[in-house]
Design brief:
This protein is an alpha/beta fold. It folds into 5 domains: 199 residues, Rossmann fold (3-Layer(aba) Sandwich), CATH 3.40.50.300; 193 residues, 3-Layer(aba) Sandwich (Rossmann fold), CATH 3.40.50; 103 residues, Winged helix-like DNA-binding domain superfamily/Winged helix DNA-binding domain (Arc Repressor Mutant, subunit A), CATH 1.10.10; 73 residues, HRDC domain (DNA polymerase, domain 1, Orthogonal Bundle); 102 residues, Arc Repressor Mutant, subunit A (Orthogonal Bundle). It is built from 34 helices and 17 strands. A 7-stranded parallel beta sheet has the order 3-4-2-5-6-1-7, with helices on both faces. Helix 12 links the parallel strand 10 and strand 11.
């Protein structure tokens, strides 16, 4: 087993990080020990490192099965940037021609390749299976593993063939990874991959900064949304609709109401889709109206609200889509419009599908309805669905906790439910149990002759909503469980049996009836966390102008939490500014002057007393991109090639390199300079900066006129700053 030091050393050498995140270290150790590993980690937790690092540490090639071609390409590029050898990572999928596939196979057989990404469709091809039999496989990683389960939100039948193919190629340890899986889906994945005894590593699903709210979908829904967006001026938001037609209609309606918005769905041509996505990322528009096709790989940190115009088909889908809000840890509002009719429409869409698929789809819809209609803490319900217990009584950040309903005693009702489940021999689902309790003579009830039972009709005085609430809250309290293997049959737990023998007080909150609510429910407004909202707004305007001028996404300059900190602690010198979280020396020098000027003016005009001793925690400001650029320069990779591999213009790469040297990191680009410039030219520009009173690029260009390009001057300035300043 690798020692702790050896593991951290490998992490530092290969990826430039000093510490592991969350469960990463334990997961990697388990895999290095040759054991099957199941990883459940919400987006942004660092899943890919869990198989990338072990692949570099073990002999042979790791096979990564992934369904997304675009994501594969990104990951392969990222791995190549961390390594001196391009062959370290490859992918095989339908986008490669025969010559490219032959090159991949050569690199693998030479022992160069540590990671091979394969689409499940490519894995099932006979010629690929035959080839992989010759390969020394270190382990198999199944990414997006929820695709195996019909109960997951993205079922792909070809994923079901992975295990037999692994057996054919050669048995090695398996690591399965997913960002969303209920206990049922997890069980399905493990069973299907033949890894029931795998060590399971779960990270918490709780996103405490997200506010959850479900609103009734009334005739005024469009007006409500427009009103809400107008209150969120300048903030980025996503609105999800189920149909392409609704996406187009709503985007048009918002646009004529003066909202900067674009549509996005799979029916648009890919160039327009990319254009619209980029416009959103660059904040040329505030809102994207989209189907669920939007969001894969969207890592915009400051999406401030996600609105669901239509309720999603499953809670996994809902969790993943709402999870695109507030990724920077700042405010994230998740507002859903719900009416039961929408679920009935979704159920109709399922007709014509195989019965088993309809049954599963119906179960998932019922879970969504239960979530929407419940008056319990939404965080508690959501986490319970993913097999996690939320300990607090009141999360304080959802509509039900902020507007709690009156609790009613339901001890006798719970006893009636437990007794009925036991009389029915724990072989029936929620609907059937409620039909028996309420005395409904449905065809199923009479077919089983359950209308002859003593418990039949014992709860006629209460309505169906109340019984649903009792069962749901009994599940969360652990008195009953749903049998995950059998479409949700209800079973009584030992504590449920104990409760029946010796009943305790059991309070419930009744569900909300979304068919009856028509009055306006005020939406939670999203005020910023800054102490001085006026200054926060001024700084945002400045950032927007600067971003436009530099043609950069505004969050690249400073993210919202940094602006909020500025509007709280009022930094008025570069030194003070670089201590703001997320700023650091490089950014303070590059962008700070205008910001501190504006802050100083605001402080003077409003006679604000600043905190006397301005000490804000500093955060090391080396992004993943910067770390990989530093490593590539250490390995003497030509800068033009480096820019291409990072998908940057050469100018953009120079921006990054300048930020690196301005933040105090020393780098050496002589190997590149000597290839593209004469020695005496390098010396001439270097001497100029040595004698110049400033490092102004403009002054240098004026000085050298037509003799040198702007890029050449910038490159020598980087050399000068690194050698003389760091």
């Amino acid at each position: 087993m690798a020692s702790k030091n050896k593991l951290v050393e490998a992490l530092k050498t290969n990826f430039g990080f000093d510490t592991f995140k969350g469960n990463q270290e334990a997961i990697i150790r388990n895999l290095l020990d040759g054991k099957d590993t199941f990883v459940l980690m919400p987006t942004g937790g660092g899943k890919s490192l869990c198989y990338q690092l072990p692949s570099l540490m073990l002999d042979g090639t790791a096979i990564v099965i992934s369904p997304l071609i675009a994501l594969m390409k990104n990951q392969v590029d990222a791995m190549r940037n961390f390594s001196e050898e391009d062959g370290v990572a490859h992918f095989i999928n339908s986008s490669l021609n025969k010559a490219a596939i032959d090159q991949v196979k050569t690199d693998i057989l030479c022992g160069k390749t540590k990671l091979l990404y394969v689409a499940p469709e490519s894995l099932t091809k006979e010629e690929n299976i035959e080839f992989l039999k010759q390969v020394n496989v270190s382990f198999y990683a199944v990414d997006e593993a929820h695709c195996i389960s019909e109960w997951g939100h993205d079922f792909r039948p070809e994923y079901r063939r992975i295990r037999p193919i692994i057996n054919e190629i050669g048995n090695r340890p398996v690591i399965a990874l997913t960002a969303t899986a209920t206990p049922k889906v997890q069980h399905d994945i493990q069973k299907n991959l033949g890894m029931v005894d795998a060590a399971v590593f779960k990270s918490s699903f709780n996103r405490s900064n997200l506010y959850y709210e479900v609103r009734p979908k009334t005739a005024n829904v469009d007006k409500d949304i427009i009103k809400y967006i107008k209150q969120q001026e300048g903030k980025s938001g996503i609105i999800y609709c189920l149909s392409r037609k609704k996406v187009e209609e709503l985007a048009e309606l918002l646009s004529v109401n003066g909202i900067k918005v674009l549509p996005y769905h799979a029916g648009m041509d890919s160039a327009t889709r990319t254009e619209n996505q980029d416009a959103f990322l660059l904040e040329k528009v505030d809102v994207i109206v989209a189907t669920i096709a939007f969001g894969m790989g969207i890592d915009k940190p400051d999406v401030r609200y996600v609105i669901h115009y239509d309720i999603p088909k499953s809670l996994e889908g809902y969790y993943q889509e709402t999870g695109r809000a507030g990724r920077d840890g700042g405010e994230g509002q998740c507002i859903t419009f719900y009416v039961n009719k929408d679920l009935q429409k979704l159920e109709k869409f399922m007709q014509g599908k195989p019965i088993a698929e309809q049954e599963i789809g119906k179960q998932l819809l019922m879970e969504t309805a239960a979530y929407a209609e419940s008056s319990l803490c939404r965080r508690k319900l959501l986490l319970h669905y993913f097999g996690e217990e939320y300990k607090g009584e009141n999360c304080g950040n959802c509509d039900n906790c902020l507007n709690p309903k009156k609790q009613v005693e339901a001890k006798d009702l719970l006893c009636a439910v437990i007794e009925t489940v036991l009389v029915l021999k724990e072989e029936f689902k929620t609907e059937h149990v409620i039909d028996v309790i309420m005395g409904n003579k449905t065809s199923q009830v009479t077919a089983y002759m359950h209308d002859d039972l003593e418990v039949f009709g014992c709860g006629q005085t209460e309505d169906e909503k109340t019984w649903n609430a009792v069962i749901r809250q009994a599940l969360i309290a652990g008195y009953i469980v749903k049998e995950i293997e059998n479409y949700g049959l209800l079973k009584v737990t030992p504590s449920g049996r104990k409760f029946l023998d010796k009943p305790q007080p059991f309070k419930i909150v009744k569900d909300t009836d979304f068919e009856e609510i028509e009055e306006e429910m005020p939406m939670k407004g999203g005020a910023s966390c800054a102490v001085d909202p006026e200054l926060f707004s001024i700084l945002k305007d400045l950032r927007k102008k600067m971003a436009k001028r530099l043609e950069l996404p505004p969050y690249i300059i400073f993210q919202d939490p940094s602006l909020e900190a500025m509007a709280t602690t009022y930094p008025i010198t570069i030194d003070e500014l670089q201590n703001i979280p997320g700023v650091g020396a490089g950014k303070a020098k590059r962008y700070g002057e205008e910001f501190i000027k504006v802050i100083k003016l605001h402080v003077d005009e409003n006679e604000i007393e600043r905190p006397e001793d301005l000490r804000v925690r500093t955060i090391a400001n080396k992004s993943k991109l910067k770390v990989s650029i530093i490593q590539a320069i250490d390995r003497k990779i030509a800068l033009d090639e480096l820019a291409e591999s990072k998908d940057l213009d050469f100018d953009e790469l120079l921006d990054e390199v300048e930020a690196i040297v301005y933040s105090g990191t020393k780098i050496n680009i002589d190997y590149f300079l000597h290839e593209i410039m004469e020695e005496d030219h390098i010396e001439e520009i270097f001497e100029y900066f040595k004698e110049s009173e400033s490092d102004s690029l403009e002054d240098a260009i004026n000085e050298f006129g037509m003799d040198y390009t702007e890029e050449e001057i910038r490159l020598i300035r980087i050399k000068f700053l690194s050698e003389m300043g760091n």
